[in-house]
Design goal:
Length: 421
């Protein structure tokens, strides 16, 4: 886990300055101990219920992290042919524990998923059902299907990551569900198997999950009465984490235990007596606190009343502050208790005013050359990184016990230019 020992930030048992010496900055650094602990807590919260954890690959699709999660027992939730390909590379055996979500599956993606014999297609429209039925017939495969229903439940989160309202592009209206299930059941190559939902991301109040599952439970009963064999309920992902740690690094595991068990209760209670196999698609809750982004301070400068810390990490490395106004903790890699605290904007070298990692943030004073760590970036950090301004993407290192493993090397300029011939 991330912690200070003698004023120096460590990842599991390794000091960050030593890792930076070897791998450079900006650097994504992951703690396998944190990942293991959080997976254990999440999975433990559903003990006693038939369930599978299908880790949402989009949160962090690094192959080594996926392998580690597969070793813990996870299946996967994918939303593209690319993510499906990653599952087949990281843990081929887990394709049968993989669900495929997304509003715009292409024919090529559908074919690949049919050939891979995945567990479940979460179908999001009538058009997709028709294409899936046609392709399954053509390839002589059977597609197990759930419809992703839109429960019309508001979830308090950033509007860009809320998905469960009627006006969003996701899922099919519950009111249309019985007609669509009837239509699906008519195809010999479709096996109607479940109901699926996902209402959004970074949801910290569990009430919307409960409200959603109440609607899902009603639908399961109704569909069973109509003769459909509903085995699976896919509750989606969305459980949030606490990004605003006052003390220490990241959410303590005890806090997560409490939240995971509240979440499990909210999901399970409405489903009581239905005897379904529950599928869960957590992303952030498992991986966010398992990662930090280490960056070196390049310059300090003052423009008017503003003090800027200019770092070698930018919005192309971590987009969340610019895109969602996300507030990631920022701590010095080497702590000096004598330092004062001041208000800074932390910005990167990219030519955009939106290129900031923090705004008007009270931080411990820092000098050029020193290292800072951005916290809770294991989810949607590297996954959202780009090459904007022709910046090579950062390296990723996974710490396992006393060993650090480079799990994605830093990109080079030739990597960036390669597709252009
Ligand atoms: N299942 C489905 C169908 C999803 O769309 C998502 C996330 C998940 C599971 C996993 O959700 P999680 O447990 O990680 O909340 N880029 C944004 C988050 C976008 C989430 C998209 N869907 C961010 O950085 O906050």
């Amino acid at each position: 886990m991330f912690h200070y020992r003698k004023y120096i930030l460590h990842c599991d048992s390794l000091p960050l300055p030593t890792l930076v010496e070897k791998y450079g900055t900006p650097l994504y650094l992951y703690s396998s101990e944190t990942l293991r602990a959080r997976y254990g807590v999440f999975q433990g919260a559903f003990k006693g219920t038939r369930h599978s954890v299908c880790y949402s690959v989009k949160a962090n699709s690094n192959l080594s992290l996926m392998k580690l999660l597969a070793r813990f027992g996870a299946g996967f939730d994918v939303v593209s042919g690319g993510e499906l390909h990653r599952v087949s590379k990281a843990a081929r055996g887990r394709l049968k524990q993989t669900v495929f979500s997304g509003v715009g599956k292409t024919q090529a993606e559908i074919d690949a998923a049919l050939r891979a014999s995945i567990l479940l297609f979460n179908v999001e429209s009538e058009g997709e059902l028709e294409l899936l039925a046609a392709r399954a017939t053509k390839l002589r495969r059977k597609a197990r299907v759930a419809f992703r229903v839109n429960p019309d439940v508001p979830a308090e989160t950033h509007p860009y990551i809320s998905t469960g309202l009627r006006e969003h592009k996701f899922g099919v209206a519950i009111a249309d569900a019985s007609r669509l299930y009837r239509q699906a059941a008519r195809s010999k190559h479709i096996e109607v198997a479940g109901v699926s939902v996902h209402i959004g991301s970074q949801i910290t109040d569990v009430a919307p999950f409960r409200a959603t599952m109440e609607r899902v439970a009603e639908l399961v009963l109704e569909l069973r009465q109509a003769g459909h064999d509903i085995t699976y309920v896919d509750a989606g992902g969305g459980l949030g984490i606490d990004y605003e740690q006052q003390e220490g690094i990241s959410e303590p595991i005890e806090t997560f235990k409490r939240r995971a068990s509240e979440y499990a209760k909210a999901v399970l209670e409405p489903l009581q007596g239905l005897n379904v196999h529950l599928l869960l698609e957590p992303g952030r809750a498992l991986v966010a606190p398992a990662g930090v982004l280490v960056t070196r301070l390049l310059y300090r400068k003052q423009n008017g009343a503003k003090q800027f810390l200019i770092t070698d990490a930018a919005m192309n490395d971590l987009l969340r502050p610019a895109l969602y106004g996300a507030q990631h903790g920022i701590v010095p890699v080497t702590r000096d208790p004598g330092r004062s605290r001041e208000t800074f904007d932390v910005v990167g070298p990219i030519c955009e005013t939106g290129d900031f990692l923090a705004r008007d943030r009270v931080l411990t004073d820092a000098e050029p050359g020193e290292l800072l760590a951005l916290l809770d970036v294991g989810a949607y950090g590297m996954a959202l990184a780009s090459n904007y301004n022709t910046r090579p993407r950062a390296a990723e290192v996974l710490v396992e016990g006393r060993r650090a493993k480079l799990v994605r090397r830093r990109e080079t300029f030739s990597d960036l230019l390669a597709p252009e011939g």
